[in-house]
Each structure stands twice: as structure tokens, then as C-alpha cells.
Amino acid sequence: VGVRIPDHVVTQALVAELGEPLLSSTLLLPDEEEPLTQGWEIKERLEHEVDAVIDSGDCGTEPTTVVDFS
User: Fold this and answer.
1) Which segments constitute the YrdC-like domain (predicted)?
2) Are 10 and 54 in contact (CB under 8 A)?
3) How many other C-beta atoms are found inside a 10 Å radius of the C-beta of residue 45?
4) In the chain, how many domains are there?
């Protein structure tokens, strides 16, 4: 089981307002080498396939830190 706790003000605000966890994934489109990380680009390419895009700046591509608690 993996749990990610992002240090990002928008994500933390969404979780606080919703009162439940969010499910997310890296946005790597078929036949693409790099994930999409810019809100404007995600909206431009997927605006007819998603309900909403929240552009809070560059998401970056820094990998998640993994801590083993076993």
C-alpha cells in the first residue's frame, strides 16, 4: 500500500475541503516519453475528455520519496 502526502497548498486545500483522499496518477499519454505537468497543456490536449483542470503551476517531475515502514 502506498500513500502520498504532497507538500502542495492546492492539493492540501482540496483534501481539507473534500474531507476525503484524492486518487491521482502520473499523466503519461500513450506514445509519449514525458508526463504532462503543465495545467495549460493538459487542458489544451484533454479539455474534451476531462471535467476540469486545476492549473496551480508546474507539477514538476521530481520522483516521490518512498519510506519503508515494515
Assistant:
1) 1-70
2) yes
3) 14
4) 1
Amino acid making up residue 44: E
What distance in Å separates the CA atoms of residue 66 and residue 22, rounded to the nearest whole number? 18
- Asked if the structure places residue 42 within a domain, the reply is yes
Q: How confident is the model at residue 49 (pLDDT cuts 50, 70, 90)?
A: very high
In a domain, 2, yes or no: no
pLDDT at 55: 87
**How is residue 55 written as a grid cell?**
492549473
4-39 pLDDT tens trace: 777 888 889 999 999 998 888 788 999 999 888 888
User: Is there a contact between 8 and 56 (Cβ–Cβ < 8 Å)?
Assistant: yes
* 11-24 CB burial, b ≥16 within 10 A, e <16: beeeeeeeeeeeee
